[in-house]
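in:
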């Protein structure tokens, strides 16, 4: 069912993404009122968060709704996701019940569940959020799994606010060093949204082993083709930065070493020079710099870059709030008719 959920921007059209961004921008100009009055949202966090949790809780509250935060395995029961599992391990209940019970209480379920980092062929199935989407009878929203679509919207809005039109601006997603192998979610999402918005996108990474999953490379190439943009891969740092309008930094683990991370460590240790610094930024077209946060200073980017007037890291983080409000209001069909999506969200019943 198109647009019942917000799991990925891959199944939201350019027009639908633009409408979400327009809605978020309108929320920033003028508070939209109690659009979520009488609505409740379950926020299911399997992993830590600063920005996502704060912006979701406050975003729901600010629109007159109520958010319930659940942390399975901590103050909520551990959950099993495997269909047909013989549940003799730690999990006390199955997602089949969890999703349906939460659907009885809440109007929307939002989930953060990072991958397990052991087997990419398993993690790429994104089983947990897809199970929630399959079994819930209310819309489901992705708060970061192997994609981070909410970050995409906040990033896109920040770019739009600074640059105006984004079409054919040179956008560089640069891999950076980090002592640990990190999730590919934000990198996947960066390519998806930058290509969806028609930018000329360069993926800069140490070598072919740091390419992203073919699902995201292919989807991004298709986006670029549809929007008259481009997607280029390079391992040449200076060539990537040359003339860039946007530099987006992120670290991620190389997929061929997934689950065998000790074998990747020497490679990543050799690539500390991918740090975003003043010399590289000087090659750009006065580029904006951003990162999704959290970010290790002077590892991924120097203090001078992060603190420069071209850094939009705080603007991007701030935009999490109105963009997620726009997603929730759209999924729950509580925006004004002019801003409503073309499809009607599935609702089993309405709350008073
Ligand atoms: N960028 C982001 O999602 O931040 P948190 O992990 O703090 O939520």
């Amino acid at each position: 069912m198109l647009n019942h959920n917000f799991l990925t921007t891959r199944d939201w059209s350019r027009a639908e993404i633009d409408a979400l961004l327009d809605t978020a921008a309108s929320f920033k100009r003028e508070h939209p009122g109690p659009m979520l009055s009488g609505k409740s949202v379950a926020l299911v966090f399997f992993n830590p968060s600063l920005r996502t949790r704060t912006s979701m809780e406050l975003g729901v509250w600010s629109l007159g709704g109520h958010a319930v935060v659940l942390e399975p395995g901590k103050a909520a029961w551990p959950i099993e996701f495997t269909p047909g599992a013989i549940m003799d391990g730690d999990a006390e209940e199955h997602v089949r019940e969890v999703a349906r019970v939460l659907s009885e209480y809440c109007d929307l379920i939002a989930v953060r569940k990072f991958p397990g980092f052991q087997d990419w062929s398993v993690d790429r199935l994104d089983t947990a959020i897809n199970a929630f989407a399959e079994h819930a009878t209310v819309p489901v929203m992705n708060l970061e799994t192997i994609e981070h679509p909410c970050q995409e919207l906040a990033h896109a809005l920040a770019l739009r606010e600074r640059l105006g039109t984004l079409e054919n601006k040179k956008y560089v997603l640069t891999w950076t060093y980090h002592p640990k192998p990190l999730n590919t979610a934000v990198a996947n999402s960066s390519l998806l949204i930058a290509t969806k918005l028609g930018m000329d996108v360069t993926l800069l990474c140490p070598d072919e082993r740091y390419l992203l999953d073919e699902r995201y490379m292919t989807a991004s190439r298709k986006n670029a083709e549809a929007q008259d943009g481009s997607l280029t891969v390079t391992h040449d740092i200076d060539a990537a930065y040359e003339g860039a309008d946007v530099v987006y930094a992120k670290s991620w683990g190389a997929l061929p070493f997934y689950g065998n991370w000790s074998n990747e460590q020497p490679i990543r240790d050799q690539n500390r020079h991918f740090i975003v610094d003043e010399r590289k930024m000087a090659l750009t077209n006065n580029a904006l710099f951003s990162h999704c946060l959290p970010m290790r200073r002077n590892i991924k980017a120097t203090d001078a870059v992060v603190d420069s007037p071209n850094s939009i890291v705080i603007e991007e983080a701030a935009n999490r709030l109105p963009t997620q409000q726009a997603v929730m209001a759209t999924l729950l069909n509580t925006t004004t008719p002019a801003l409503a999506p073309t499809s009607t969200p599935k609702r089993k019943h309405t709350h008073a």
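note: The domain at 2-146+320-347 is CATH 3.40.50.1370 (Rossmann fold).
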